[in-house]
Design brief:
Distance between the termini: 51 Å
CATH topology of the largest domain: Dihydrodipicolinate Reductase, domain 2
Family: Belongs to the Gfo/Idh/MocA family.
Helix content: 25-40%
CATH architecture of the largest domain: 2-Layer Sandwich
Shape: globular
Strand content: 25-35%
Number of helices: 8
Structural class: alpha/beta
Number of domains: 2
Oligomer: single chain
CATH class of the largest domain: Alpha Beta
Keywords: Oxidoreductase
Order of helices and strands: EHEHEEHEHEHEHEEEEEEEHH
Radius of gyration: 20 Å
Protein name: Gfo/Idh/MocA family oxidoreductase
GO molecular function: nucleotide binding; oxidoreductase activity
Organism: Emticicia agri
């Protein structure tokens, strides 16, 4: 029988609730401890998901016996701080995306992981979905030929709650880091780092980017990407090649289906049903890495997180997206 992996969670907002809902469905996996700035929230969360330990201090989670790994689900602005805190305590980390606020912070996280010989991975959960695996297979099998362009978007109407993370610059709010990361990552995964980047943003009342549009140029391809809090978009991805195209339908970053359109052939749809939101796949990846004493994931290595944050930094620079205290 596989060794049970006992998880802790730091930060108990909406994303932590979704993550925990999937985690308790993964075999040989337990939610063991949770930590929040509020003891009431920590207690309620622990009771809801059956965690035996709960704390009102993030540092106290390291007192938990037999804890194997911590998932960090705090706002973007504190990802680096709490990841490094865990790593210095030799605690393996799965940190929510974006990994941090900029490349300098990510490099410090990677350095801490290597200095302490401790596992670290960015929670880019889309990477592990079966539809993304299938999309890569179809491309590798040359079913659509060489990719010529990618179109991907993500948009919804965000309620005006300036104190919440989405629109709060102090918490790393803004469309690019919150949802634009998904189209940007898809292009990076399938085409690599672009040779040229164009980006522009419009800004809302709180100063964060409300809409960011991006164009990546590659030697023989382009990517047209968009993220917005101002409109509900189709939130789909289309990967166009010389011999056909691949469609990831709404909402592409959590889709259960992918359709292949080959020239002069009937479309083929591949369906991957699941009873979870999809976080279970990244949880299983972390579990397997820990059981095999791996310090990083082959599918989502730290080098990819460095590239992704470098890309986001460059997009921010081109679009004029700045955060006080982060950008010098």
């Amino acid at each position: 029988m596989a060794k049970p992996i006992k998880w802790g969670i730091i930060g108990l907002g909406k994303i932590a609730d979704k993550f925990a809902t999937d985690l308790v469905k993964v075999t040989h996996t337990q939610l063991h401890a949770v930590a929040s700035s509020s003891i009431e929230r920590a207690k309620d969360f622990a009771q809801k998901f059956g965690a035996p330990y709960h704390y009102d201090s993030y540092e106290d989670i390291f007192k938990t016996p037999e804890l194997d790994v911590v998932y960090i689900a705090t706002p973007h602005s504190s990802h680096a701080e709490y990841s490094i805190l865990c790593l210095k305590n030799k605690m393996p980390v799965l940190c929510e995306k974006p990994f941090a606020m900029n490349l300098k912070q990510v490099e410090k996280m990677v350095e801490a992981a290597r200095e302490n010989d401790t596992f670290l991975m960015e929670a880019m959960w889309t990477r592990f979905l079966p539809v993304i695996q299938k999309t890569q297979e179809l491309i590798e099998e040359d079913r659509i030929g060489k990719i010529k362009t990618i179109h991907a978007d993500f948009g919804f109407v965000a309620p005006f709650t300036p104190e919440r993370r989405t629109l709060n610059p102090a918490l790393g709010g803004g469309a690019l880091l919150d949802i634009g990361i998904y189209p940007a990552y898809l292009s990076l995964l399938l085409l690599g780092y672009p040779t040229d980047i164009h980006a522009m943003s419009t800004f809302g009342k709180t100063g964060v980017d409300e809409t960011t549009s991006i164009v990546f140029k590659y030697p023989q391809a382009t990517a047209l990407l968009n993220a917005t809090f101002g409109s509900r978009t189709r939130t789909e991805a289309l990967i166009y090649g010389e011999k056909g195209y691949i469609h990831l339908p709404e909402r592409f970053h959590e889709s259960k289906t992918v359709t292949l359109y080959e020239t002069d052939k009937d479309p083929l749809t591949f369906t991957f049903e699941r009873e979870t939101r999809g976080y279970n796949f990244e949880i299983e990846e972390v579990n397997n890495c820990l059981r095999n004493n791996k310090k990083e994931s082959v599918k989502m290595p730290l080098s990819m997180s460095v590239k992704l944050m470098s890309l986001l930094d460059e997009i921010r620079q081109k679009a004029g997206i700045r955060y006080e205290g982060i950008d010098s």
